[in-house]
Input
Amino acid sequence: MCGRFALTATPDEIATAFGLQNVPPFPPRYNIAPSQPVAVIRQLQHQPREFRLMQWGLIPSWAKDPSIGNKLINARCETAHEKPSFRSAIKYRRCLIPASGFYEWQKVDKSTKQPYYFHKPQPFALAGLWESWNDIETCIILTTQPNDVVAPVHQRMPVIISPENYKVWLNFDTQTPSHLFHLFDPDLVQDLSALPVTTLVNSPTVDRPECIEPML
Output
């Protein structure tokens, strides 16, 4: 799963990387956790790409209780099109979630897990889905099998969409899930590095640069 990530790029860097006309000011985030607001890029039909803030934790449009969003922070890319909570969103409400890196935890022994920060030289995009529930916009991150960098640490990783595939992923007219499966290949991910970091990141209340610094 992907339960934490970071976005330390500036608004100008995000605008350049994702072809946006306007990105409002926002502070760097070093430990983004579920239920918190996250940066999202979406494209509505016949509209330019836009930057939004959405709550991390998908609340399906048919939900009666918004607390369901606390459980829906990740969706498996292999089966999302089959699940009632996601099958409409993967057809009509796909989005990009900008990130500078993400965290996974490696089990060391029965009581210890070592956090790792996986990052790239430039901001990149996690594959997301979004929904609107009573005027609350929420999102979820898709996950896939790990590539060679992530596999020694964890059995899943977030789907990372390559820049050349942003248009395909956001295209409103591409509604058949089978046309998207090739985007989920973890071996397409280049320049991903793994960095062991301190357990500061274990607490969602800690959001400081020290979260992404290498463990001494």
